[in-house]
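User: quick one, sequence for these C-alpha cells?
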C-alpha cells in the first residue's frame, strides 16, 4: 500500500469522525449502533486503517445529507449548510473552493 493511499484513507476517516461529532454522537459506539456497523469496524474507518465504504456514506447521505464529496474529497458538496457549519466550526476547517478555469 502506498503512502498516498494510506494518507487518503486517514483523511477520509478523519472526516467521518468530524461528521460523527457534528451529528452529536460523542462516542463511536452510539454512532456505530445508529448506522448499524460494528463498533470495531467503525473504529477502523475513523482511524483510516480501512477505507470508509460507499454503502456507509450512502446511508449517511440518505439519513443526514452527508455528501460523498465531503467524505471522499474534503469538499462540502450539497451538504446541509447547518451541518457543514458545525463541522467547520468544530474543527476549524476553512473551505476554499477550487477555481476552475474556463476558456474564454
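Assistant:
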Amino acid at each position: 500500500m502506498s503512502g498516498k493511499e494510506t494518507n487518503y484513507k486517514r483523511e477520509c476517516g478523519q472526516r467521518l469522525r468530524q461528521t460523527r461529532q457534528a451529528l452529536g454522537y460523542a462516542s463511536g459506539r452510539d454512532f456505530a449502533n445508529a448506522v448499524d456497523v460494528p463498533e470495531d469496524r467503525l473504529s477502523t474507518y475513523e482511524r483510516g486503517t480501512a477505507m470508509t465504504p460507499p454503502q456507509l456514506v450512502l446511508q449517511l447521505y440518505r439519513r443526514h445529507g452527508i455528501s460523498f464529496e465531503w467524505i471522499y474529497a474534503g469538499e462540502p458538496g450539497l451538504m446541509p449548510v447547518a451541518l457543514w457549519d458545525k463541522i467547520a466550526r468544530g474543527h476549524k476547517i476553512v473551505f476554499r473552493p477550487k477555481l476552475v478555469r474556463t476558456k474564454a
